[in-house]
User: Fold these one by one.
Assistant:
Number 1:
Amino acid sequence: MEKLLIIKGGKIFTMEGAPLEGGYVVIKNGKIEDVTPRMEVPKDAKVIDAADSFIYPGFIDIHTHTGLWEEGVNIEGSDGNEATDPVTPHVRAIDGINFHDDGFKEAISSGVTTVNIMPGSANVIGGQGVATKTTGEILLNPSGIKMALGENPKRVYSSQKKLPSTRLGNAAILRKTLIDTLNYIEKKKKDKKAFDFKLEPLVGLFEGKYPARIHSHREDDILTALRIMKEFGIKFVIEHSTEGHFIAEILAKEQVPCALGPTITTRIKQELKFRTPETARIYEEKGVLFAFTTDFPVLPHYGLFYSAQIAVRHGLSEEMALKALTINGAKILGLDHRIGSLKKGKDADIVITNKEVLDPRFLVKMTIISGEIVYEHKSREDLYI
Amino acid sequence: MIVLIGGKIFTGEEFIENGAIFIENGKIVKVLRRKRIPKNAEIIDLKGKYILPGLIDPHTHIGMRDEGAPRDYSDVNEATDPATPHLYAIDAYNPQDPAVGKALKSGVTTFFITPGSANPIGGIGSVIKLKNAPISEIIVKKEAGLKMALGENPKLTYREKKTFPSTRMATAAVIREWFTKAKRYGEEKRKKERDLKLENILKALRKEIPCRIHCHSVQDIETALRLQEEFGFEMILEHASDAPLVAEKLKGKVKGIVVGPLFGVSSKPESRNLSFENPARLSTYGIPVAITSDHPFNALYHLNLYAAMSFKEGLDEITALKAITSTPAEFLGVADRVGYIRKGNDADIVVFNSHPFDVMSRVEMVFVDGVRVV
Amino acid sequence: MKIVKAGKIITLKGNEILENKYIVVEDGIIQDITTSKPSAGEFIHAEKLVVIPSFIDPATQIGLAEEGAGFNYYDSDEATSPSLPHLRSLDAFYPKDLGIKDAAKGGVSYFVSSPGDSAVFSGLEGIFASKGNTADDMVRVFPSALKLNMNYSSRIRWRSEGKYPSTKMGILALIREKFEKAKNYEKKKEKEKDLEMEALLKVLRKEIPIKISVNTRDEIEKAIELKREYDINIILQEAEDSFQVADLLKKAEIPVIAGPYFIAGRLYHQRNHYAKNLYPLYEKGVIFALTTLHPVVPVHLLYHQSALLVKVGIPELDALRSISTNPAKILRLEREAGTIEKGKKANLVFLSEEPFTKESDVVGHMLEGEMVWKNF
């Protein structure tokens, strides 16, 4: 009989309705067995006393490059952008990630339990992303196809004097590749031997197996993404969506989910000029599904919480702020049956903190992933701040 | 018939004291624990000496970059195309490399010659004897492994040229693309035309030859495991500096690990855990370990000293001796010919005047195919 | 005359907390802090707010690396020669940089705008206020220091071009060469005026300090040697390994400008770049100030960034000191700024709540007596 691990709360933010002021989270075999305000604790259970702490579902960041750009290493550890060809759908983030990198340790100590790691945005089609627990346990591979519009691809390739060097080129390459994929799908129907290693991963987009994840900041780039994805009938998520607040109604109407962030960085590119901390509030008002992201290593994983705190100060509701750190990301990844809230049957990914995560001083006391205690704060040394 | 008597004989598996080795027509015909000398035999008394199978180095580029040659006289890496499975290292072997003579004098009689690690798929390596004869006559096994590489070398080679692959993701993609193509090629009943590249990869997919995968860091070892799971090939990891950190995962999945070059300083982030302690650590997990010089990165002709250093840092004596004799023979699939002093094997034998792990020890005799060459 | 009626004032004079006082401001100076209500004046009602000294960011490229303009428009890095000590950030300062309004909204009264880090001697930097229409309106002290880059960024830049100096040895040799040249220049009776030499002489004469970007322990120790060798004043910037030599720094009275911390993606020489490594500096009494190095981190996040110090165990008042009193000391502004005291400039930040609490935000900013941001 597997022993139970029970967390005795403290305020429990289940993300399934109102928080519980005191209660129990019961863990068995790596899953949440129960979340209840009252229970008789079995004698042989291991109990974690979190009576004056706060309990949350493990936090989720749906857009990072954790382990793809290693901490403390230079080009030898830089594996996120295959900037030698603007179309590389056959390249996989999982083959470039160093799961032992300090970035994962920082994530765990910051309470981030699931990350969706994708290639960078140098390429119009960058490759396949992977959703993984920050312990390295793979959730979805591939989790989506990374794409990019806007300044990055055209800047990278114009310096190489290759297509694309304008937004015209970005879109043309994207459309051409999607048409080539459709042709390939037709060809395969007639010829069993037809095989194209490069285009094969894009077939999954047309089959609805996973979405396109499209990096775009400026409103026109977001609309270009929408236009092209509609043309081909492909499900997609907008990454960053910096000017999304200008077209929030369209995004809501078309049900385009957004990976919002990193929101607390400088406007170092022209396409970032209209970044504002109000975007989250406007998304909430207009009904756009969004999750905060750090784009690690642009921000450290703990930047998620500062992004949320600042959005709250600019009018975002606390309730939505917490959703955008947990269940919203789970929904966008299609993993809300496993993660994103404290609910019976879901994975036991749980974070215990000394203050609410919207408090700038909070520290993680303990991180539990798949029922295992993977981090316990004991001294300054184990912080990655 | 030549008979070597006396001394301490290491057979490739164990020590025999005061035994006798019978050599005829280039082969070992008998190994006895007692002396019983035939009348018409040439007897060589090796009392007090140490007798080993000719040493074997399973990973070298000897003859591909000659000692003392100009900087551009190097044929180790065909760094112009990331996937070159159709290349054969032996086509670049120059037996006049001064290192060859030195290697023989140090007791190395057999080695695996391989392409370098610039390419994710580098080409085919062969097992060769160090013998003064035409190249075609010294090949023990022409196709003994498919050299592959992960980590910093391939991606930095091609990043400099601004071509694919310039990241680890793309290095894996090169391998996956070619292995997938080869799999499909193998499934074709009637092949339209012969494809030399795909043929060689198919040999690895069919487990006719092992994949010899250059890697150092944990993440690259994990990538090798991931690729193996997808394609089912047999693999041996080269260098694998971080292997002790993931030894549990490797048990049962690798045929073995070739450790080295260990003398020297790590010049790259990925090899910072390079250590003479690695062979001992891996051994405790039951993972077979062979030791290499990776000539010319370390000199081939001090192979016994690399084994000695590993012994010093915790590897037990027998395993350390095996690491430069029978274990590489097993990795290379030539154990029926070399690596052991036993009936039926080639008479490749080296005689040291004291224990081969003694830094003062000297090689007094070397036999290759029953002929004394040193 | 303006009168701020403050519910709570954290003056940062020691651990002093004042409650329900009137801060009387005239001509941009705090004339008095009193319990008796003044009869006339423009009242600013901050009864429900907490008033603290406003912030100072001692290392940014605001005005040079304009936000929203894109990299091609940046004027921060004259990377055409390793020795350009005579360049002045004042001459390239764009007063309408979006970052300036953000600084004002974020409570940052003063910021240093500094040239970049490709050159070894990259130029003269100065202190600017976050209000005004032109660079000359906004500048407060120019120059405030000479910028020196003794770290990876500069040597790798010249190495990539195959030019001197491309190693640590080369950088130190260049620095010494230039200082000696400046000394020789000073001795000459008759000479043509040389702007480069004049800039270096300001440092040698101790008119201004030299602000040195360093990362590793050996670079820090070399910087300290330079201070001794030439008897100059130095400030260390970034200096991730400073915690390893905290005693040395305390003894030599060398301050450190540390940060920023809302970042990741550390390079090899930045392996120790963590806020937790400031704790030993705090323990040993080394003076350190936080920076955003804007545009590395947005300048208005200076206050939010200081919450990270609290997380690693540094007391809240000391965390606040690192963004006001300490930078004031380092920049030699302590007689006019850094604390709320009679006689100092009326540089105040109005917080909606106690510092570092969930609801706390900068809702107002008075800069030299003028409300440059008021959201209450």
Note: Chain A touches chain B at residues 67-68, 73-85, 88, 90-100, 119, 127, 160, 193, 195, 197-198 (CB under 8 Å).
Number 2:
Amino acid sequence: MHVEHPVKLVVEDDLRRRRLTVFFRLLLAIPHFIWIFLWTIVTVLAAILNWVATLVTGKPPAGLHKFMCSYVRYLTHLNAYVGLVANPYPGFVGEEGEYPVDVTFPGPAPQPRVKTFFRIFLAIPALLVSSALGGGGNIRFSTARKGAARYGGGGGGALGGVCAVLGWFASMVRGEMPKGLRDAGAYSVGYTAQMFAYLLLITDRYPNADPTAMLADVPRPPQHVVRLVGDAEDLRFSRMTVFFRLPLAIPHIVWLILWSVVAWVVAILTWFAILFTGRPPAAFHRFLSRFVRYSLHVSAFVYLAANPFPGFAGVQGSYPLDLELPEPGRQGRVVTFFRIFMAIPALLVNSALGWGLFVAAFLTWFVALVRGAAPWGLRNLSAYALRYGAQLNAYGYLLTDAYPHASPLEGSTEMQQPAFDEPA
Amino acid sequence: MSRGALGRAAAVIVLASIWSLAAWLLWSSSVVPALHLPHVDEHAYFSAAVLHAAQSFGRFQEILWVISTLVELAVLVLYARYGARFARESAAGRAGTGMLLGMLGFALVWAAQLPFSVAELWWERRHHLTHLGYVSTVLGNWLALGAQFTFLCLALAIVMGFARLLREWWWLAGAPAFVGLALLFAFVSPYLIPTHRLASPQLRAATAKLEAIEHVKHVPVVVETVHDVTSLPNAEATGLGPSRRVVLWDTIVSGFTPREVTVVIAHELGHLEHDHIWKDVGWYALFAFPGTFLIARLTRRRGGMAEPLAIPLSLLVLVLLNLIAQPLQNVVSRHLEAEADWSALQATHDPAAATALFRHFVPTTLGEPNPSTFDYVMLENHPTVMQRIAMAKAYATSAAQSP
């Protein structure tokens, strides 16, 4: 039976942003950076105490638990502020329920000693995912030139960082954060909160990378014309094809490269055709649809989002993770003329998601080899990244003029749940 | 005997005659005169310690080869029996599923061979013949599987495509297609090897002289850097037409005397002089036709090569046929190498350098100068070192007797 994650992200943000505070956001956050730095030092010491106490008593002491909760909550507020996931200036003590992007924690509960003892090692996969999602706040250890260890917390990162940068420009222009970027940012902030809650012994539940579960209470955006379809429940993997996944994919990659050369030529011809007639020629649209669908099939296979070996033709309905693409329709000439430049923000988001996809695939490889099944959360993270990539491809290859939607909730009508409790 | 059977027998006889004629034409182009090779005693050329080291090194490799071949066959037998189950891991249609089954078969063989590859590496490292590490070798092998898979997919796409069109007669189109690919590969392969120009002015001058003598014009002699991977010496003549070149490993350029390297260059130019690359492809064609025919016949019970379920069996048949053909291919290869050796002797008129070169090979490669019959039949694609020394001696004798 599925159990909701005890560390829950609450998003009550209305997307509106003050241009003045957006413009100076990083400067305004400086006092918070100094404060989190000091707080992190104390937290590291407190975490060691908490670890010892939990090992001895089997349960974190209430005082230390509360301290850790405040720290992670404050970190979440700060991440949300710096990442433009929320608008108001956060408080300095991590007050519960006082910020539009908040996090709720369970009370102190008994935790298995073995899991507690190895917590820092067990957290490594979650740390990898967190660094890929880049909600910020990840403690970074590095070695300075003279060998002194430095550490600190703060914003920045892959997906969260890209969403923040793009969101900064959008908010400055519109006075509003695009919902897609806000949701993506919230997802990365939420995952980071769950990761820290696990690392700091607030809970022994592993962070859940499933974006739809993370943002379960957030309103869904309208459906995009490019939709990912497939059997969400099917997580089974063949260990044999998992082990040899990369070599098995090489013929597909070679074929994809060859096909992409022709697809580029056809896309250029389509570009001219749309500029003159306002719509893509049906034959070109069909060809490019197949190419975009085939790209998705190959990516899903390579990145372990789906199990079977895909076909080489990109036929609709031939693969468990498939794409629904629009029929050729009218497209705006201006949007088409500037398509390649307009795609740049989406390319940035896609590259950030690509890192997440890589990390998810890397971790899934080990899990699927052992269990013969993919982890639910990581599979859904991969599906999110693949869906966005497919929407970007459809946009770039002129199948639609609908911009890719960055929200992890796009395409999900309701919260999907696995049939069993599934970490990561 | 029925008319049909008579017709089939006649067809087999005609085809066998054509095959024999083609083989005879390829074989009889020999430039080596009918020499009576003198007996040479290996102990006269090598110390007991060197002979012992070579024998011990070769024995281990021989045993390893036998066991790994048996394991490979066992894996393929099992895969032929149960491999079709993996078809359910495919959403790729008939051809794609065939490719997947083919790749998985190779993957299993790779996995089964891995311990032997590691053992061989350990043995070579122990004898200072390679500098490769275990991790990089295993990882490199794993990634190299991808390249193998690509070629396998291409081959299976050809076979399954023709089999769908021509049913069990696919081999009539498939064999020429593979010959075409072999020609293409022979042409392209020199461009895939990173090389640099031969630096030594002495060797460059010798090369120019040899090119004139052996009537091989404008063939670049280049050097491939391998010393960071292996200490083994090697050289090869590759390419067709404008892509022809002689590639020397830097281990041979730096580890052998200029006179010895000159013999190597003359040997490789000899391959080009006598169109050995073309002949290689010719021989490949002679094996490809009966080979593909046999695969087509033996996979009929699984629905023929148009069916993906026949692929696991076809891999077993392919490997078995290769194994059976290996002694024959070695005979052909030794014949061509002997021609090149003779060309080198004629071009350099330096049997002493040739003898020194062949002697030098033994301590540097730990190759047995006089291997066992099994080794000679199954594994040796060059004349033995003693045969090569004997040829140099015979040349010296005949040169001394000629006016």
Note: The longest helix of chain A spans residues 245-277.
